[in-house]
Design brief:
alpha/beta; Rossmann fold; 4 helices; about 20% strand; ThiF/MoeB/HesA; tRNA threonylcarbamoyladenosine dehydratase; THIF-type NAD/FAD binding fold domain-containing protein; ThiF_NAD_FAD-bd; ubiquitin-like modifier activating enzyme activity
Length: about 160
């Protein structure tokens, strides 16, 4: 069965009682989002929506398993290619542009994982998820700390000069 924890590849994790959502959207697939998208596919999430407007740049190569020949390609394309090479059954929808409510509304997802680095956008996406009653998980890395939070609306002040998403 597609993405079932009873498939041979997932048999060892069936005893953990894991909840595997049918569809997850990862917003921001550089850095943490790249690894998160890969891990979600590896544990058997059958459908992934990948959203990121950025292309691979040379400074990304020190933390991601991307060959130098991929510089200039869309990050969502590179991640989708890697996932498909490991989990061909995974259905991947790629969106190489900024996430907004129109894009998010057209996707089917149980969970949205926010791996962006803009506090303003994190706050907007958290509010979107609260309004739509979609599970929201925020994950980030600032060079010294890795954080994961769930269903928490941002309470920090946002710098008004910070660009959106």
């Amino acid at each position: 069965m597609l993405g079932s924890l009873t498939d041979d590849v997932y048999l060892r994790q069936s005893g953990f009682g894991l909840y595997i959502p049918k569809s997850v959207t990862v917003v921001g697939v550089g850095g943490v989002g790249f690894w998160l998208g890969l891990e979600l596919a590896m544990v058997g999430v059958p459908q992934l929506n990948l959203i990121d407007p950025d292309s691979v740049e040379e400074h990304n190569l020190n933390r991601l398993p991307i060959p130098k020949g991929m510089i200039g390609r869309a990050k969502v394309d590179v991640l989708a290619m890697l996932i498909k090479s490991l989990r061909e059954h995974c259905i991947i929808t790629k969106h190489p542009y900024k996430a907004d409510s129109d894009v998010l509304d057209m996707l089917g997802h149980e969970v949205i994982c926010d791996c962006t680095d803009s506090f303003r956008f994190q706050r907007q996406l958290g509010q979107y998820c609260a309004d739509k009653r979609v599970e929201y998980v925020r994950a980030g890395y600032d060079g010294t700390h890795y954080t994961v939070t769930s269903n928490v609306l941002s309470t920090w002040d946002v710098d008004e000069d910070e660009p959106d998403g």
